[in-house]
TrEMBL record:
Coiled coil (residue ranges): 168-195
Classification via InterPro entries: Cof, HAD-like_sf, HAD-SF_hydro_IIB, HAD_sf
Protein name, per record: HAD family hydrolase
Organism, as annotated: Salipaludibacillus neizhouensis
High-level lineage: Bacteria, Bacillati, Bacillota, Bacilli, Bacillales
Pfam family, one: Hydrolase_3
GO molecular function: magnesium ion binding; phosphatase activity
Keywords on record: Coiled coil, Hydrolase
Length: 284
């Protein structure tokens, strides 16, 4: 364990969130206790800022949010920094996604996520029951909810500032083919990709990830990079886990993540693994 850790970074999905996309009251309470002790606690998630309030308990508070895999950072409602995908890149990727019938959600800042109406039919087809066995229930429920309630189906792209693209496919073959397409496009246009499950991929600004978000947040608060603790479970957490002084993988993490981490939690995300880990390690 890091000596006298001063800063903690927590992933959401598969970490503080269980597989039904909820943060437990126990996790909230232990974060409150740590912050009362003067320890800084940050969320570092692939989710956009607008996706967080619906999955946390009432009164949930942290010192800051790193969202969209490092694309934006917030203290409350105040933006510390925001990176944006270019409109040129957005339009090119949507064109490519349509050619490949790939489910996509585009996340503008300050507005609901967008999918174009002309792509609605094949996007909805990707989330029709039954759920493929290899798709996690949390990701499936999120996509079903997005299609039903959260996507703003538009005739045209609106806005000029975008935090990320999220892509999903019900088959791993389809999403792997799309990843190959994105890799080819990277030869022409500069951007970063990240994955958090075998059925998705996300697009951000080049050289942006959770670790770059951590650096910006630490600098904003005047905090040292030493004595930082990070907990995560998936590939998009690797930059964060590698950057932190001490890294912890969830019990439910893939073997690759566990191999990279300094420690693995005793309990998984459905068993309040973060709560039990922090309670034991900080003697709470």
């Amino acid at each position: 364990m890091v000596l006298n850790p001063k800063v903690i970074f927590l992933d959401m999905d598969g970490t503080v969130l269980n597989h039904f996309n909820k943060v437990s009251i126990h996790t909230k309470e232990i974060i409150d206790e740590l912050r009362n002790r003067g320890i800084f606690v940050f969320i570092a998630t692939g989710r956009s800022a607008g996706e967080i309030s619906g999955v946390v308990p009432p009164g949930f508070q942290v010192d800051g949010l790193i969202t969209s895999n490092g694309m934006a950072g917030y203290i409350g409602d105040e933006a510390v920094y925001e990176h944006s995908l270019s409109l040129e890149l957005v339009e090119r990727i949507i064109e490519k996604a349509r050619e490949n019938n790939v489910y996509y959600e585009l996340f503008p800042y300050g507005r609901p996520r967008i999918t174009l109406k002309q792509d609605k039919e094949y996007v909805e087809d990707e989330v029709k029951d039954p759920k493929p066995e290899s798709v996690g229930i949390n990701e499936w429920l999120s996509r079903k909810q997005a299609v039903k309630e959260e996507i703003d189906w538009k005739e045209n792209i609106e806005g000029s500032a975008f935090s990320k693209f999220y892509f999903f496919a019900r088959s791993t073959e389809h999403i792997d083919q799309w990843k190959d397409e994105l890799d080819q496009l990277k030869k022409e246009m500069n951007f970063t990709t990240s994955i958090s499950s075998i059925h998705n991929v996300e697009v951000m600004v080049a050289n942006v990830n959770k670790a770059t978000g951590m650096k910006q947040m630490l600098q904003h608060f005047g905090l040292s990079e030493e004595n930082t603790l990070a907990i995560g479970d998936s590939n998009n957490d690797l930059p964060m886990l590698e950057y932190a002084s001490y890294s912890v993988a969830m019990k439910n993490a893939a073997d690759l993540i566990k191999e990279k981490a300094d420690e693995v939690t005793e309990f998984n995300c459905d068993e309040d693994g973060v709560y039990h880990f922090l309670k034991a390690k900080f003697d709470l």
